[in-house]
Design goal:
By secondary structure, the protein is an alpha+beta fold. It has seven helices and 13 strands. Helix 2 packs parallel to helix 7. The structure holds adenosine-5'-triphosphate and magnesium ion.
């Protein structure tokens, strides 16, 4: 056992030596352009360069707009919340901020599942189960959706996930545990800042070394945040429902979690 630990430590040290300095990272070829982000390779093996765009989309891309400043806010909010996960020992892809709109992350093979945690009924859950928006759930509800734009990201259960080989039973159990740990980290942190965490969506991926990490982003694009005092929506629902003040709401979240104009 001690021998094994020594070997692992040596292996890690060797990897660190072989890896280029993260401060000297340079942007490589575009790997993927999504609706909200562009993903580039870098000169560092296993590290990707993510650029957050100002594009806003909803309803599977049917509704589109460009909201100036949204990318910079989502990038910095996500960086801050992932740093919190790191502090709490929750394995995740975040490495460091590169600029107001860019961050460096660990490359993973994204599992084709969206894992949603809900504390309060809203969105599709309220609709599907006939619950009033704002109804408090007696315990957090975890749901999985199949990441498939053509099918409109349908809700899937454990059997669907097994039959389609979307994740192994072990990965699924780990994702549930991690998603609830993320909820336990975020809820009190946000509550202290006057923000109610209604629900959020996570993506997970596996590194080349086989490690399961929380990936993608945690921002007002992927969470529902309500002002604790007024109940005002401070997230992407402002865009979905044409409520206006979308970027202003994102800026309010950034301000409350410590944003100070710098990055
Ligand atoms: N650490 C990571 N390693 C590899 N890919 C990642 C990582 N984090 C996020 N991604 C992927 O980057 C892509 C771009 O993100 P974006 O949010 O723009 O995608 P999207 O338009 O929502 O589309 P998708 O349906 O692919 O999620 C997504 O496919 C996302 O899963
Ligand atoms: Mg996305």
């Amino acid at each position: 056992m001690a021998e094994e630990q020594r070997a692992t430590a040596q292996h890690r040290a060797a990897r660190r030596e072989a890896a280029p300095d993260l401060r000297e990272v340079t942007k490589g070829a575009l790997l993927y352009e999504g609706k909200a982000k562009k993903v580039y390779r870098t000169n560092v093996p296993g590290a990707l360069w993510i650029v957050f765009k100002d594009d806003a989309t909803a309803f599977n891309g049917e509704k589109r707009s460009v909201l100036e400043g949204k990318g910079a806010l989502a990038n910095r909010i996500s960086a801050r919340l992932f740093a919190l996960l790191t502090e709490r020992g929750i394995p995740n892809h975040f490495l460091r901020l590169l600029s107001p709109t860019e961050q460096l992350v660990r490359e993973v093979a994204i599992l084709p599942l969206e894992v949603v945690v809900r504390n309060v009924a809203a969105g599709s859950l309220a609709k599907r189960l006939g619950l009033a928006e704002g109804a408090i759930l007696p315990k957090p509800v975890v749901e999985c959706y199949y990441k498939n734009d053509r099918l409109g990201d349908p809700l899937v259960n454990d059997d669907h996930i097994a039959v389609l080989s979307l994740a192994t039973p072990q990965q699924l159990a780990q994702m549930r545990t991690l998603a609830l740990a993320v909820n336990d980290a975020l809820m009190p942190y946000l509550a202290q800042r006057g923000i109610r965490l209604i629900d959020f969506k996570l993506e997970f991926g596996v590194t080349a070394e086989g490690e399961l990490l929380v990936a993608d982003e945690i921002s007002p694009d992927t969470c529902r945040f309500w002002d604790a005092a007024s109940g005002e929506k401070l997230d992407k629902d402002r865009f979905r429902r044409d409520l206006g003040g979308v970027v202003e709401a994102y800026a309010e979240i950034w301000k409350r979690i410590g944003g100070d104009g710098g990055w």
